[in-house]
Design goal:
This protein is α+β, with helices and mostly antiparallel strands. It has five helices and eleven strands.
């Protein structure tokens, strides 16, 4: 019986080691602390090179193809500590999917990332057309968006899907485009940016609340609901050593 148990244990350990050893990995990778205070980026460059700047939670989003609300748990530094990653695949023709798999291995090896998958009920919004109809101005073919002189007005978005992505940042919740609208539009939005964060507005600041602005300016609504979504739950992670 002891021989059998030892054989099973050896088989499990050997299998786990084989999976780690055979996991796709970059030929070389450098991780350094970043002094950049704003922004983030990831570039899949010719020659199998990957260049990224951001924070660990964002690296997980890129590596596993999930949204910010689908990464749960972990320490606060996962969203504050910034790093730059410069990595190179052995195959100069490595695809984006292949390099994302290598990024997963890098997170496990260098950040000691351990997580598990779950599905959870999450508060979300559906972006829908108001019963009185949409008010967005269509753009003609070849026409670019127009921004007003007022720098407090949100502009540069040209379709409801882009608007839903922006509203996800504003509300802190997933927002799904359910308008059914296609084409390009000149979307501008002026609203109270303090209210969604629960902060008092400065004296003399009289912008409308987000829900009123969406209805009156764009003819849209945010409808709350619950949705069951897959998430990655961080079990443990460590700050990487630089090289």
């Amino acid at each position: 019986m002891r021989t059998l148990r030892f054989g099973i244990l050896l088989l499990v350990v050997s299998s786990a080691f084989s999976q780690t050893a055979n996991a796709p990995a970059f030929e070389s990778a450098s991780i350094r602390t970043s002094t950049v205070k704003f922004g983030s980026n990831i570039k899949y460059q010719p020659g199998g090179q990957l260049s990224a700047m951001g924070w660990p939670r964002l690296f997980m989003q890129w590596a596993y193809g999930v949204a910010d609300y689908q990464v749960i748990g972990g320490s606060e530094w996962l969203a504050t500590d910034r790093y730059t990653i410069e990595a190179k695949a052995a195959n100069p023709n490595a695809t984006k999917a292949e390099m994302n798999a290598m990024l997963q291995t890098l997170l496990a090896d260098r950040f000691k990332l351990m997580f598990h998958r779950e599905t959870r009920d999450i508060d979300v919004y559906d972006l829908v057309v108001d019963p009185n109809g949409a008010k967005m101005k269509p753009l003609k073919e070849g026409e670019d968006f127009h921004c007003p002189d007022d720098l407090s007005v949100v502009c540069g978005l040209t379709n409801p899907t882009q608007l839903a992505g922006f509203l996800r940042v504003v509300t802190g919740k997933p927002v799904f485009d359910k308008t059914g609208m296609t084409g390009r539009y000149n979307i501008t939005l002026s609203f109270n940016v303090y209210a969604p964060k629960g902060k008092p507005s400065p004296r003399g600041y009289n912008k409308p609340l987000l829900e009123d602005a969406l209805r009156d300016q764009l003819g849209l609504q945010l409808v709350p609901r619950k949705d069951t979504l897959p998430v990655l739950v961080v079990d443990s992670i460590e700050r990487p050593s630089e090289n």
